[in-house]
Every structure is written in structure tokens, then in C-alpha cells.
Amino acid sequence: MFPVAQELSGPQRRLLKLFRGLDGSDQASLMAFAEFLASRGKGGSAGLGPEPLHEPREIPRPEQESVVAAIRRLSETFFMLERGRMLNETSILMSSHILQGRQAPDVIDDLESLFQRHYHQYRIRLET
């Protein structure tokens, strides 16, 4: 059962109000970004011995792809990366698309570079 409005905290009510004011596409973007934020920090080893070196999954980039879908695809491709480490840069790129109107293909190119760079750092960290 969902909580009634009185049971929500101030920030929760504000977020709900903002969410309701968005169109369907922007609601989907907000949800994807919230899922990204919620998943940050997951996937790392919890001190249970050396972390195994994982290879990225082969998930090709579709011809037409939204920034939200690209973040999902790249998160699945590079499942081994700690998303918290990429949070700031991913947020900046997402904001440049949503708030500044940067074209999706350009933002996706930058997201792919970001994930590749972090994967390279991940490999160096585990191989040394």
C-alpha cells in the first residue's frame, strides 16, 4: 500500500510534486537517473578477497537511442564498475542533455568515453 501524503517527508512530497509536473518522457528520464543513483556503490567487492577482473558485456549501441537508454546499456555493459565513482560526471552529462539541450548522440558519445575511461582505470587497479 502506498503512503498517504501526510506520511511523506518534505523532500518526498517535493519530489512527487516535481515528478507529477513532468511529461512522460521526462518522468522516464528522472526514473532512470534515480535508478542510477540508487544503484551507485553496488557491485564492488565487500572485502571478501581479491575482486575478479570482469570483461564488459557485448551490448551494441542501437542506431536510435535516448540518453537514459544509453546509461542503462552502459551500466549493463560495464556492470563491474562502481557507479558512485562516475556519479558526478554522469550527472553533468545528463544535465547537459536535459537542461542545456545538448543532442543525445553527442552526450552518448561522451558517456561511452566516460565508461571506457573508468573501465580502463578498473583494469589498472585490479592488474596492479
Structure notes:
Helices cover 61% and strands 0% of the residues. Mean pLDDT is 84; it is low at 42-48. The longest helix is centred in the C-terminal third of the chain and has 24 residues, at 104-127. The protein has helices at 10-20, 24-39, 67-77, 83-98, 104-127. The chain has one domain (9-41, 60-127). The protein has five helices and no strands. With 128 residues, the protein is mainly alpha-helical.
Descriptive terms for the model:
mainly alpha
Count helical runs: 5
Helix/strand/pairing category? mainly alpha
Mean pLDDT: 84
Poorly predicted segments: 42-48
Query: Given the C-alpha coordinates, what overall shape results?
Result: globular
* Domain unit count: 1
Output the helix-strand order.
HHHHH
Give a count of the beta strands, DSSP E runs of length 2 or more: 0
Radius of gyration: 17 Å
Largest sheet: none
- What proportion of the residues form beta strands (DSSP E)? under 5%
User: Roughly how much helix do the residues carry, as a percent range?
Assistant: 55-70%
Q: What oligomeric state best describes the polypeptide chains here? A: single chain
Gap from first CA to last CA: 50 Å
